[in-house]
Write a structure and sequence with these properties.
three-stranded antiparallel β-sheet; alpha+beta; Fusion Protein Consisting Of Minor Coat Protein, Glycine Rich Linker, Tola, And A His Tag, Chain: A, Domain 2
């Protein structure tokens, strides 16, 4: 499975997305929302084909989530039989506005 350069696997990738997502404040204040994001980590560790599989119902939240995925650093690609392979990841993200 792909991972961040410093390791940690999928949990670290999820935490990095959560740490970098910049949720815009909109009125009225909405409670937390859940989105599911999909993206592919290529053989060189690049992220592409990012898309929202399940929307939070608020377009600005979803756009902020996609921006955070695009801002991920180059990842360590997944390997199969010693060779780098593209890996699709589906990650649920809970967006909380405080």
């Amino acid at each position: 499975m792909p991972s961040l350069p410093k390791g940690g696997g999928i949990a670290a990738i999820t935490n990095e997305i959560g740490r970098t997502v910049k949720v815009p404040r909109i009125q009225p204040q909405l409670p937390w929302r859940r989105s599911v994001v999909y993206f592919v980590v290529g053989t060189k560790g690049n992220v592409y084909r990012e898309t929202i599989l399940k929307s939070s119902g608020v377009a600005t939240y979803d756009e902020a989530l996609l921006a955070a995925v695009r801002a991920l650093p180059r990842l360590v690609p997944g390997r199969q039989n010693g060779r780098a392979v593209p890996v699709g990841l589906t990650i649920p993200i809970r967006v909380e506005v405080r």
